[in-house]
Specification:
Layout (H helix, E strand, L loop, with lengths): L1 H54 L3 E3 L5 H13 L6 E5 L6 E4 L7 E5 H6 L2 H16 L2 H20 L1 H4 L8 H39 L4
Parallel strand pairs: 2-4
Antiparallel strand pairs: 1-2, 3-4
Helix pairs in contact: 1-5, 1-7, 2-4, 4-7, 5-7
Length: about 210
C-alpha cells in the first residue's frame, strides 16, 4: 500500500510539473517541462550520491578506521541481504545520518560524529538499520527524484514572470500567478507526503533488520 501511494504521489508531482509548463507556455511549455524533468531526473539518478557526500565533506571509513560503525552496517547489510554499502563519517557536531545512492549496489550510508558521540551502540544500530531499510526500499532514488522535480518546479515558478507574456500561455497573467503561488506550495505538500510515507516504511523495515523494534 505504501509503495502504491508513493507511486501515485510521484505521478501527481510529475503531472503538476507538466501542468505548470502548460500554463506558462501552452503545449510547447509542457514539452519543455517534460524534457527538463527527464534531464534533471537522469542527472540526479547518476550523480546524486556524489553530490550529497561531497557537499557534506563526508570521508569514507572502513573496518580499521571506524570499527564499531562499519561492523554495525556490515552485520545489518548481511541480515537484510544487501550488498555492503560504502560507509562515511561526517565531521560535524549535529547528530544526523542518511543513506544515498541510486540502488542497493551503489548505496552509501553516512553518520555524523555528533550522532556517533551522543548515542549508545544500540541507538546507533537502530539509526543505521533505519538507513539500510531506506536502501532496501530504494527510497534514496525515490526521494532524489522527488526533490529534483520539486526543485525544478520551484525554479520554473521563479521564472514565471519571464513567460507570463507569452502568447502560448493559455491563461495569460492568471496562469502565471497560479504557477508562481500555488505550484511550489503544492510541490512542497506532495514532497512531504512522500517523505513521511517512506520514513514510516523505513521505521518498520529498520525494526525488522535490527531485530530490536524498541
Amino acid at each position: 500500500m505504501g509503495t502504491l501511494r508513493t507511486g501515485l504521489l510521484l505521478a501527481g508531482l510529475t503531472a503538476l510539473f507538466l501542468a505548470a509548463g502548460y500554463l506558462l507556455g501552452g503545449e510547447a511549455g509542457m514539452v519543455i517541462a517534460l524534457v527538463v524533468a527527464l534531464g534533471t531526473n537522469a542527472f540526479a539518478y547518476w550523480n546524486s550520491d556524489k553530490i550529497v557526500l561531497r557537499m557534506y565533506g563526508a570521508r569514507e571509513v572502513d573496518a580499521g578506521s571506524a570499527p564499531a560503525l562499519y561492523g554495525i552496517v556490515r552485520q545489518f547489510a548481511h541480515r537484510a541481504e544487501l550488498p555492503m554499502p560504502r560507509v562515511y563519517v561526517i565531521d560535524t557536531p549535529q547528530p544526523n545520518a542518511f543513506a544515498t545512492g541510486r540502488n542497493p549496489q551503489n548505496a552509501a550510508v553516512a553518520a555524523t560524529t555528533g550522532l556517533l558521540d551522543r548515542l549508545s551502540h544500540e541507538e546507533v544500530a537502530g539509526v543505521m538499520a533505519h538507513e539500510l531499510a531506506h536502501v532496501k526500499n530504494r527510497d534514496t532514488l525515490i526521494m532524489t527524484v522527488t526533490a529534483t522535480i520539486a526543485g525544478a518546479l520551484s525554479m520554473l515558478a521563479n521564472f514565471a514572470l519571464f513567460f507570463g507574456g507569452s502568447r502560448n500561455n493559455p491563461l495569460g497573467l492568471v496562469g502565471t500567478i497560479l504557477v508562481m503561488v500555488l505550484a511550489p506550495l503544492a510541490a512542497m505538500v506532495v514532497q512531504m507526503a512522500i517523505s513521511r510515507t517512506r520514513e514510516y516504511a523505513a521505521d518498520r523495515g529498520g525494526a525488522e533488520i535490527c531485530g530490536q523494534p524498541l
